[in-house]
């Protein structure tokens, strides 16, 4: 028997509670993992809130990522005792996730714990940090080099934004950080941002084209902020769009695309193919300053995760939340 959190369907919506589960409750899969660390991601906070249709099947153990040790394996790539990490693949949405002491999954979804990272550090990075790396790789692949100009990171005090800021600065980019939390200026600058942009400047619908300021952007906010980011891209600029913390809608014009050759590049971490996944994790292990990662992380015991989740939807979490299962 082991502990976990479960989302169940009710007549009025859903109910979330702590449960005692057994291995026979777990879904199909060829690898059983003892989960040692998990995290709280924006999508998890949405899943437990019931405000968005994240959960596709009930009952569901949420938790879109975890790190742990293989307990049993019928998959030739993994053996008992291997340290592994999982992000994405619909885990915590349609397949039971990481908010339990054990998880049974398809071995092809796992990656070996990258050399140089502990399980705790891997989850301090988590889906948010992994996505930040994918955003950096997207800008690079589109030819955005540090000499091209400044890069704007939105939602900079949050999980994706914090890691993106640190990675871009480490790789020689000049980072401008858009935030609604001026009180986090020192923190964001310690991560490597050169200057802060007030979120209010991008909060309301602006003109189709504004002064071209940014060679690249990592956007986690969507909505009006993304529309304004697009309008403010410099000629040939690239926006890596990965989030919707400020809204799912996007009301914009074609002006940035047809007059400035701007590229809007989507970034998805869930179905990201394996080779790209491995490259991203290796690069995170090598390029992310682990002292800065420590500074981004708040550790929360498993018993408090449901209490902390709503703060994330209110934009009140700084950096990343890592959850200890012990
Ligand atoms: P966090 O909650 O840690 O950070 C989001 C940040 O966005 C906040 O800290 C805040 O930054 C800003 N923000 C929040 N609400 C608003 C608002 N209403 N208007 C403008 N800015 C706002 O979340 P994550 O960083 O973990 O995730 C960010 C987004 O990326 C989410 O939408 C998430 O679903 C998405 N995501 C997508 C993935 C993918 O595969 N595409 C994977 C991982 C995440 P500040 O206080 O600095 O302004």
From TrEMBL:
InterPro entries: Acrylyl-CoA_reductase_AcuI (IPR014188), ADH-like_C (IPR013149), ADH-like_N (IPR013154), ER (IPR020843), GroES-like_sf (IPR011032), NAD(P)-bd_dom_sf (IPR036291), Zn-ADH-like_protein (IPR051397)
Enoyl reductase (ER) domain sequence ranges: 13-323
Coiled coil: none
Spans through the membrane: none
CDD domains: MDR_yhdh
GO molecular-function terms, A-Z: acryloyl-CoA reductase (NADPH) activity
Pfam short name (any one): ADH_zinc_N
Alphabetized NCBIfam families for the sequence: oxido_YhdH
Protein name: Oxidoreductase
Source organism phylogeny: Bacteria, Pseudomonadati, Verrucomicrobiota, Opitutia, Puniceicoccales
